[in-house]
Write a structure and sequence with these properties.
The chain is α/β, with parallel strands linked by helices. The chain has four domains: about 270 residues, Alpha-Beta Complex (2-enoyl-CoA Hydratase, Chain A, domain 1), CATH 3.90.226; about 180 residues, NAD(P)-binding Rossmann-like Domain (Rossmann fold, 3-Layer(aba) Sandwich), CATH 3.40.50; about 90 residues, N-(1-d-carboxylethyl)-l-norvaline Dehydrogenase, domain 2; about 90 residues, N-(1-d-carboxylethyl)-l-norvaline Dehydrogenase, domain 2. The chain is built from 28 helices and 20 strands. Strands 13-12-11-14-15-16-17-18 form an eight-stranded mixed sheet, sandwiched between helices. Strands 1-2-3-4-5-7-10 form a seven-stranded mixed sheet. A hairpin with a 2-residue loop joins strand 1 and strand 2. Helix 4 packs across helix 5 and helix 10 runs antiparallel to helix 11. About 45% of the residues are buried. The chain binds 3-hydroxybutanoyl-coenzyme A (3HC) and 1,4-dihydronicotinamide adenine dinucleotide (NAI). The site of 3-hydroxybutanoyl-coenzyme A (3HC) has 23 residues, from strand 6 and helix 3.
Length: about 700
């Protein structure tokens, strides 16, 4: 074996098959050394008369997973990926890509310049650049439609979702699926056969039979645009991806490449892509927690207990059953248990109806969920998650009970959304085994998991919980104990200010529109209606002291009874503003002596909703309740629908600059007063030092 560079090795076997092996852990990204190695390796194989064919292969867990994102925004070090690709595509000997793991982005673009592709049965193939606000910039948008057809290519480049080997074979993206664990042998044999039998050196660029259908039916593009419009609202990259595929259909290959190049640069320099690339690393950074190392001991989690089969308990249980972990779900009475289990089944069956799981899967998952009315059944569970009503006294009683029932070493978690986890942990004789696992609703779908590290939570408990989160495919963000933790604590501030704005004469619908236009899926009032206005509302103590109380007192519960801040069509669930509610708000404002204004701009609405969140985020950071500012962004993007193309609240603030943020916060503070407008000490410090939250 010869090292071409420190990232690419070269070896020729006795049959004259050269194997070029990329070895650039962790994901074999196309760093400079890889591009150089591929180029020189191909030159060497081309020049060597003893070489009949070449196999491109990767060491480690995956084929090339894309361009090296850490090189983006820096001057490009030659050779370019195009140089390496040209050397592959123009090689006068057959080149076969041997693909395992994930051939993504630039990785798939490299595979598509090979003359043939052999895939491991479990390999995945995709162009996920759109998730980084980009488009495939190395010929991917021009080659993919030529090989899989226009419709499939459009789907793949705009969703970023990879396909598996079976589908890739059906669409002609690969030529053969290797037997399990025999990829390299199969690819080498394939290459030898191609060379010995003189097979054609297929270049995808020269093919256009799969473009024909779209050439004859140009409406396909606008139809596709319409179909994805709702999902891609606010993003710029999906449209540019479509334009590139259009160019593949309507222009010669080289011209199409030019369009791709031009639009790639447009994406690369867009603020949306910068935010999405920032977010990619933010999400991975969240997994790094001080004090938790690879060698921190882990506990074995084989069985899980869930207390409460309500909205959250049911969803939480599904996460575990989905990955094959048995769950014991305990309720206080049979009717509630039956109801909870029926909801779980209904959810699974709905998924099956949509074709996303089989009925066998439904039964398999249901058989992993065992209902019970006896907490003693938690005795053998390795992890127990409490999801009963949000009531401190109840939770305390329950944790005392769990302490007496659960085996030593079991992890005891609470799903509380705002209560003090230290206080709950103190009820047990093992506070080191207690933490908060704050799932978001619907818990089987939302990916965020706020992991509340209480004062005494042991490192191995946190480390184990982080591993569990990965197993159930959640994105965990470690947070500290404080009311509402990170997400809800910031949400409270936005809610408080949004409520002030409506008292000054802006309708709830207009506030919601501004927040929607910013990129959230819905505004604060639509969200309250969806969650239910009566969450935490108590009829006995209600005293018409807020708009929400007044709405609840008048029988408005939100979407669930068709009337909240909006009225809802009983059939379509479509919302419309309600003049009656607007009058109620005006009456309440008059009682409070709040002056109505007609000069509130959209900009003011947006700033007044978002800046208190940033200010609160700064306080959270200052108190050490979040490890880093990017963790706050991960919470907001994943848990509350902050548009990822705007990075997250702290990133958004950094783009504005902390000095500017402080100036605005101070101005609103003077004008409006209130605790949530008092500038955080950290914000003042950073603004003074000319630093952003990312440098805090
Ligand atoms: N460049 C640089 N680093 C990368 C990378 C890339 N393309 N992809 C992953 N990494 C790093 C991660 O940051 C992480 O680093 P860390 O351990 O220091 O945090 C490490 O590799 C492992 O990544 P994951 O934790 O995500 O590992 P998984 O096994 O869960 O997932 C993966 C592997 C599916 C490859 C996933 O990392 C992924 O989706 N990567 C991005 C793929 C992508 O977007 N490719 C397209 C890039 S753009 C491009 O190719 C442009 C081209 O058209 C010119
Ligand atoms: P829920 O009212 O839907 O469910 C609670 C369930 O607990 C009920 O089925 C009830 O019968 C059961 N229960 C009550 N006392 C019990 C006991 N002693 N033993 C066994 N079961 C008992 O409530 P939901 O919404 O599921 O909330 C549960 C917890 O999750 C709360 O702490 C809440 O703050 C938190 N949470 C709720 C979210 C939401 O959006 N609903 C989001 C995140 C957290």
């Amino acid at each position: 074996m010869t090292a071409i560079t420190d990232m690419v090795d070269y070896e020729v076997n006795d049959d004259g098959i050269a194997v070029l092996t990329v070895d650039n852990p962790p994901v074999n990204a196309l760093s400079q050394g890889v591009r150089q190695g591929l180029l020189e390796g191909m030159q060497k194989a081309t020049a060597d008369d003893d070489v009949k064919a070449v196999v491109l292969h990767c060491a480690g867990k995956t084929f090339i997973a894309g361009a090296d994102i850490t090189e983006f925004g820096k001057p490009m070090q030659p050779p370019s990926l195009f140089d390496a690709q040209d050397a592959i595509e123009n090689c006068p000997k057959p080149v076969v890509a041997a693909i395992h793991g994930t051939a993504l982005g630039g990785g798939l673009e490299v595979a598509m310049v090979a003359h043939y592709r052999v895939g491991d049965p479990n390999a995945k193939y995709g162009l996920p650049e759109v998730n980084l606000g980009l488009l495939p910039g190395a010929g991917g948008t021009q080659r993919l439609p030529r090989v899989v057809g226009v419709q499939k290519a459009l789907e793949m480049v705009t969703s970023g979702k990879p396909i598996g080997s079976k589908e890739a074979l059906e669409h002609g993206l690969i030529d053969k699926i290797a037997p399990e664990n025999q990829l390299l042998e199969a690819a080498v044999a394939f290459a030898a056969q191609a060379a010995n039998e003189g097979w054609e050196l297929k270049k995808i660029r020269d093919r256009d039979e799969k473009l024909k259908e779209a050439k004859e039916n140009p409406g396909i593009f606008d139809g596709f645009r319409r179909a994805i419009a709702r999902k891609t609202r606010g993003f710029v990259a999906p449209e540019y991806n479509i334009q590139c595929v259009e160019a593949a259909v309507n222009k010669p290959f080289e011209e199409g490449l030019k369009v791709e190049r031009e639009l790639f640069m447009k994406c690369m320099t867009s603020p949306e892509s910068a935010a999405q690339r920032y977010y990619f690393f933010a999400e991975r950074q969240a997994g790094r927690v001080p004090g938790i190392e690879k060698d921190t001991p882990r506990r074995d989690i084989r069985t899980v207990g869930v207390l409460g089969a309500g909205t959250m308990g049911g969803g939480i249980s599904m996460n575990f059953a989905n990955v094959g972990i048995p769950v014991t779900i305990v309720e206080r009475e049979q009717a509630a248990l039956d109801r909870g289990l029926a909801v779980i089944r209904k959810n699974y069956e709905r998924t099956a109806k949509k074709g996303r799981m089989s009925m066998d899967d439904v039964e398999r998952c249901m058989s992993l969920i065992n209902g019970s009315l006896d907490k003693q059944d938690f005795a053998d569970c390795d992890l127990v998650i409490e999801a009963v009503f949000e009531n401190m006294e109840l939770k305390k009683t329950i944790f005392r009970e769990l302490d007496s029932i659960c085996k030593p070493g079991a992890i005891l978690a609470t799903n509380t959304s705002a209560l003090d986890v230290d206080e709950i942990a103190a009820e047990t004789k093992r506070p080191e085994d207690v933490l908060g696992l704050h799932f978001f609703s619907p818990a089987n779908i939302m990916r965020l998991l706020e992991m509340v590290r209480a004062e005494k939570t042991a490192d191995d408990v946190l480390a184990t919980s982080l591993d569990v989160a990965k197993r159930i495919k959640k994105i965990a963000v470690v947070v500290g104990v404080c009311p509402g933790f990170v997400g809800n604590r910031m949400l409270f501030q936005r809610g408080a200010e949004a409520n002030r704005i409506i008292l000054e004469g802006v309708t709830p619908a207009r506030v919601d529109q501004v927040i929607y236009d910013f990129g959230f899926p819905m505004g604060p009032f639509a969200m309250s209606d969806l969650a239910g206005l009566d969450i935490g509302w108590d009829e006995k103590t209600s005293s018409s002291s807020s708009v929400r109380e007044i709405l609840c007192e008048s029988g408005r519960r939100g979407q669930k009874n068709g009337r909240g801040y909006y009225v809802y069509d009983t059939e379509t669930r479509a919302s419309s503003p309600d003049p009656e509610v607007e009058q109620m708000i005006r009456d309440f404002a008059a009682k409070q002596g709040i002056e109505q204004r007609d000069d509130i701009s959209d900009e003011e609405i947006l700033e007044r909703c978002l800046l208190p969140m940033v200010n609160e985020g700064a306080k959270i950071l200052d108190e050490g309740k979040a490890i880093r500012s990017s963790d706050i962004d991960v919470v907001w993007v994943n848990g509350y629908g902050w548009p990822v193309y705007r990075g997250g609240p702290m990133y958004w603030a950094d783009q504005m600059g902390t000095a500017k943020v402080l100036e605005k916060v101070k101005a609103y503070s003077e004008k409006l007063g209130g605790e949530h407008w008092k500038p955080s000490a950290l914000l003042e410090k950073l603004a003074g030092e000319g630093k952003g939250f990312a440098q805090a």
